[in-house]
Amino acid sequence: MSNCTFLTRHGTPRAVAAARDFSDPKDRGMAYECSLCGLCAAVCPEGLDPCALFLEVRRHDVASGTFDARPYRSILNYETLGRSRLFSRYELPEGCDTVFFPGCALPGTRPTVTSRLYRQLRQHVPSLGIVLTCCAKPSHDLGRTVHFRTAFERVLARFAAGGVKTVLTACPNCTRMFRQYGRGLSVLTVYEILNRHGVTETVAPGGGEISVHDPCPLRDHPEAHSAVRGLLTDLGYTQVEMPHRKKTTLCCGEGGAVGCIQPRNSRGWAELRRQESEGRPLVTYCAGCVHFLGQVTPTVHILDLIFRANGTPDKDFPVSKGPLTYLNRLLLKLRLMAMSVSGE
Ligand code: SF4
Ligand code: SF4
Fold it and tell me: In the predicted model, is pLDDT for residue 206 greater than 80?
């Protein structure tokens, strides 16, 4: 229980299920305090899954019209803009059956890293396409099933029309959505591709001790865990594993949009991660995790270590924030359009 700020506050999953009446609006509010990280289900010998229960409560609130969207305005606007025509782009070159789907956070905070990564991936998959849009995970997690399905089906329809069979993801949330709802699409993370084929960009050699924070949406993706560790070994880092890792990793604090209503709880999860790292810098593979964990302990994205010169894990890699992230995404879209016209 001490590994989850929600359970520390409310008791075990069994106690929560037994003592609460989820038809009572007072108790239903609890469903929005869980980060939906999935750790309970991963470790429970009795197969209890509070995540599924809380997601169902959220879905019911939306369906019955009792969901209060006001605290989530900012994240929902982020999603709506991310999948708008202004920010979306499907670059599917001739013969393309595989696309790179960087998500929203990486292009917004690290547009140059995103471009370099795309260039690198194209060395391994020459007819690789790229798709800029949002996977709508925020709507999914808030129980807005119709919004999520509509948005996600639109992406799948474009993929089907363009002959796309494989999607390469950088964002753990997008990865999770494509694996869960992708209807047979093959889904690989970019970390698996980089680990399998190597990185030809000039990479500054690393060194010293670090710990890997596995993002919770990928707790059931051992291929990504191994790939990231393989890349870090090649970069020269000594990895010291934290007690909670891979399948039993802890939430960074970003999940389930908890931060919109309980920022202190959210920070509590990040604090647990800081304690387990015992002063070592954290390396992770999710822009959201870097943002959250970086508030309490030095944390770096593995793609910064690979694609930004002279990187070290305890260095503060500046990333774009706020409105600038939207500008970055527009500029990246324009750059991609120019590349496609010039055949670059
Ligand atoms: S935050 Fe994770 S560990 Fe805590 S109750 Fe929710 S699913 Fe379980
Ligand atoms: S899940 Fe991925 S694509 Fe969706 S909002 Fe988050 S970062 Fe963006």
Answer: no
